[in-house]
Amino acid sequence: MGMTMNAISRSQIYVLDQDAALDFYVNKLGMEVNTDQDLGFMRWLTVNLPGDPEREILLEKPGPPALDPATAEQVRELLTKGALGGYLFMTTDDARKTHEDLVAKGVEITDEPTERPYGIDFGIRDPFGNRIRIGQMFPGA
Amino acid sequence: MSRAVEESNRAMLRARDAMDRAYAEPLDIPALARIAHVSQAHFIRTFRATFGETPHRYLQRRRVERAMSLLVETNRDVTDICYAVGFGSLGTFSRTFRQIVGESPSDFRRQRLAPANVPSCFTKAWTRPSSFG
């Protein structure tokens, strides 16, 4: 059977506060709001990297009715201790420059830029506990 | 109540990230407690409640994980690696390594192959020796 899927168009991470998420992902990381719409039952908030609107990240707030209050609380607790698993990988043309920019904006660096077999990359954390890794990949890596 | 837990968790995570970054430096509980905005005694207690082990034990596992990586991926000698990852003496390093990994650094080196080329953060997290049995 032939595979007919052709792209990963949307991914999701949990955030504690969508306004704070917007500030971080747009004002600090330089992403763009793709969609910010109140659907009534939830605020549908997605961002994408400039020039790449086909790949959106949904910034979802855990809570009822999708999750019961106790489960939502567990999600929030795991997220804030870095154990929920939200992880974004992004690429850049210049890891050291990007790192400098983010340091200047007060972003939390978890791992300084380091040269690896596959490229130069570094790690940051969003205000809620999600991990983000930004890499300048070597050709063919 | 839950908001307080979230803030505490996030502060502890911030301190743990700082330990991860500066793993080769001496464990600086006063500095970590300041990062987490708590007293030193409260920091150790809360760290343990949050992550299931003391800051000291976490740092030991972090250093041993780095040592495991250097043993497999480089030709540096064991003493050199011991100091590079932050241990103050070869005796402490060998004892801690054996206690956590179950074999000596040189035995470990002989038996392992370098891992596949995956992002190093995953290698770090998943090769960190467990203290949870």
SSE blueprint and pairings:
The complex is a heterodimer of chains A (about 140) and B (about 130).
Chain A: E1 10-14, H1 18-28, E2 32-38, E3 43-48, E4 56-60, H2 69-80, E5 87-91, H3 95-104, E6 108-116, E7 119-125, E8 131-137
Parallel strand pairs in A: 1-4, 5-8
Antiparallel strand pairs in A: 2-3, 3-4, 6-7, 7-8
Chain B: H1 2-21, H2 29-35, H3 40-51, H4 55-73, H5 78-84, H6 90-101, H7 105-111, H8 120-127
Q: Would you write up a description of this structure?
A:
- The complex is a heterodimer of chains A (141) and B (133).
- Chain A has helices at 18-28, 69-80, 95-104; strands at residues 10-14, 32-38, 43-48, 56-60, 87-91, 108-116, 119-125, 131-137.
- With 141 residues, chain A is an alpha/beta fold.
- Chain A has one domain: Roll (2,3-Dihydroxybiphenyl 1,2-Dioxygenase, domain 1).
- In chain A, a hairpin with a 5-residue loop joins strand 7 (119-125) and strand 8 (131-137).
- The two termini of chain A are 30 Å apart.
- Chain B is mainly α and 133 residues long.
- Chain B folds into two domains: 2-52; 57-127, Arc Repressor Mutant, subunit A, CATH 1.10.10.60.
- Helices cover 69% and strands 0% of the residues of chain B.
- Chain B is built from eight helices and no strands.
- Chain B has helices spanning 2-21, 29-35, 40-51, 55-73, 78-84, 90-101, 105-111, 120-127.
- Chain A binds chain B through residues 16, 73, 76-77, 79-82, 89, 108-112, 114, 116-118, 121, 123, 125, 127-129, 131, 133, 135, 141, and chain B through 2, 5-7, 9-10, 12-14, 16-17, 20-21, 50-51, 117, 119-121.
